[in-house]
Design brief:
- The longest helix is centred in the middle third of the chain and has 18 residues, at about 30-45.
- It contains four helices and no strands.
- Helix 2 (about 30-45) crosses helix 3 and helix 2 (about 30-45) crosses helix 4 (about 65-80).
- The relative contact order is 0.20.
- The two termini are about 20 Å apart.
- The chain has one domain: Cytochrome Bc1 Complex, Chain D, domain 2.
- The protein is mainly alpha-helical.
- It has helices spanning about 5-25, 30-45, 50-60, 65-80.
- It holds the Pfam family DUF3243.
- InterPro entries: DUF3243 (IPR021637), Uncharacterised_YmfJ (IPR024702), YmfJ/YflH_sf (IPR038292).
Length: about 90
């Protein structure tokens, strides 16, 4: 099963990657930029696997670039307390 098949697994996966980045000293701005790049890639190349991902993808697709950055930052905040080590 892929982490993309279940939204809770996806949040845990993102939370783990976020915690790794923070442990390695990556700046919040760099994390934000990567989150935006991932969101942009997913919206163009990956089909939503569940209802939550479909909503996020639809919001991303109607948002302008500033709003997309806000969505990416909200996703970072959403997963900051997630992960398999929490």
């Amino acid at each position: 099963m892929s982490v993309l098949d279940n939204f809770e697994s996806w949040k845990d996966f993102l939370g783990d990657r976020l915690h790794q980045a923070q442990t390695q000293g990556i700046s919040q701005q760099a994390i934000s930029d990567v989150a935006y790049d991932i969101g942009d890639y997913l919206s163009h190349h990956v089909d939503a696997k569940n209802g939550q991902e479909a909503v996020i993808k639809e919001l991303w697709n109607v948002a302008d670039k500033k709003e997309q950055h806000a969505i990416a930052n909200m996703m970072v905040k959403l997963v900051q307390n997630e992960g398999t080590d929490r």
